[in-house]
Structures are given as structure tokens and as C-alpha cells.
Amino acid sequence: MQISKNILVAPLNWGLGHATRCIPIINAIISNGDNPIIASDGMALELLKKEFPKLKFIELPSYEISYPEKGQFLKLKLLKDSPKIWNAIRKEHLMLGEIIAHHQLDGVISDNRLGLYSKVIPSVIITHQLQVLSGSTTWLSTQLHLHYIKKFDYCWIPDVDGVQNLSGLLSQHNDDDIFKVYLGPLSRFEHNPKSQIKYDLMVLLSGPEPQRSILERKLLNEVKRFNGEVLFIAGNVRGKQQMEKKGDVTYYNYLSTEGLQKALDRSDIILSRSGYTTIMDLHKLEKSFLSQHLDSLNRSISLNH
After folding, report:
1. Neighbours of 23 (CB within 10 A)
2. pLDDT digits (tens, 9 = 90+) for 186-219
3. Which of 41, 69, 114, 209 has the maximum number of C-beta atoms within 10 A of its C-beta?
4. Could you tell me which CATH number the domain at 6-182 has?
């Protein structure tokens, strides 16, 4: 008779991608007969509560990650916020000992929450960034990240090893002190080639504030000029699901995994923020897509069809 294990699954609250790519991990734990316990904060925690309402949830300290309104100030903003981030990492590491004892944990799976390593039970970190490509500060940012990754027993990389991967140089590093396991791309979706197309364009947003809201406002204005049916998913999971139809634009504040699967299946072209989880999802669905990068938020976006 199998004895069920209690596994903590803890995604970083930095957009929704870390949380959504943990959904197949959580489902795999459940399918194995074990008990996932979810820990996070903010919108990532809210999303997973909606996806798994019967599971146990723990609120962790927030990293309080936000971006400046203008992309050129990103490095300066992250540097300014770094004391808050290090403090949150320290707090969650101290909390982990209490969580292990209280919930009788058998293992920890952390998606980029750097303080959730343990010497008492096995700990895993999920990340596709073994190199943090930050321009002139790449060496320093990479070493800082590797410093924490090495504290975990295993590093699960949601990609394939080698040059034919999705994450490029980000997931490639030859540090022998890291026990690397390449999982292949993670997605909560399944490819369904038989679906009939309903929407000519789907806008799918996520990411930290205030950029998500800035991009939402800009794109809502731009899609008015698009010639075709538009499905607009704002990626704001706070509150209840809402739908609004204005002309050829159907707007949702968010969709569940099941609803989003159907929406993606029925959409011809996807316009989204270029987060890595979204890239994995669109790769799995074999969808054509347009990606909007962070450094172009302040440029006009032309969507004339």
C-alpha cells in the first residue's frame, strides 16, 4: 500500500506564468496519489485557489516585484527593490521550517522562490534561467541566481537539453554543482487540431503591474481598429470572472484552464506578452503568435489586419 506524501508546491508571484506552469506538476502529484500543498502570494495564489479549490493553501511573503512604467528604468527599479526581495527570501526560508513541521512535508517544489530550500527534506527549484541575461550585468545577475539554485537538491528545467530548445542560452550552463533535470516544456494545455476557429485574434495578457494594465489599456484601444473577431483575456484574476461584449471584441478579465484551452483552440492568431510560460503553451498548442516584449511597451502597436 502506497503511503501518500505531502509535497509543497510554491510558485513565484511574478505574473501568472510561474503559477500556471505548476498546474501540470500539481496534477501529476495528485495522479500519483500524493497531497500537494500550494504556497504563494498575490495573483498567483488567487489563480491556483480557483484552479484547485479543495487543496490546502499557504500565503508566503511577497517579493513585491513590480516594473517601472518605462522599460529603460527596469534595472534601476529592480536594484532599488532588491532589499525587499532579499528580505522576502529570508522570511520564506525561515517560514519553511515551520511549514515542514506543521504539514509534515516530504518534499518541496519551488518555482523560482529562492528561499524554499531545505536540509531536512528534498527540495527542488524549477527555473529556465541558469543564465540571467541582463546586458552588462549578466555575469553578476547570473552568479546571484546560481548562488540560490545551488542550495536546492535538484534544478528542474522546463525545456529540453541542447540547442533545439525554447529558452535558448537561458537554460544552458555547465556548472557541475547543479543537479540539472530537463523536464521538457511544461504546459497545462493539450493540442487539439480539430477545433473550429471562431476568433481571428486572441489577446492574452499577464505579467507584473503596472505593465499588464498599461498594455491592456493600449491594446483595448488598438483592437477597435482590427478587422475581425477579437477575444481579449486581460489576465486579472482578482474577483469573479467577468465577460463583456463590445462590437467584435469579447473581453474576459480571466479564464480558467478549461476555458482558456477552448479559447486558444478556437483562436487563429495569439497576441501576448512574451513570457516563457506563454511560449511553452503556444508551442504545445502549435499556434502562430505575435509577442510583445517589455521594452516596447511605450511604442504604438499596429494591429491592422
Report:
1. 20
2. 999 988 877 889 999 999 988 777 788 888 999 9
3. 114
4. 3.40.50
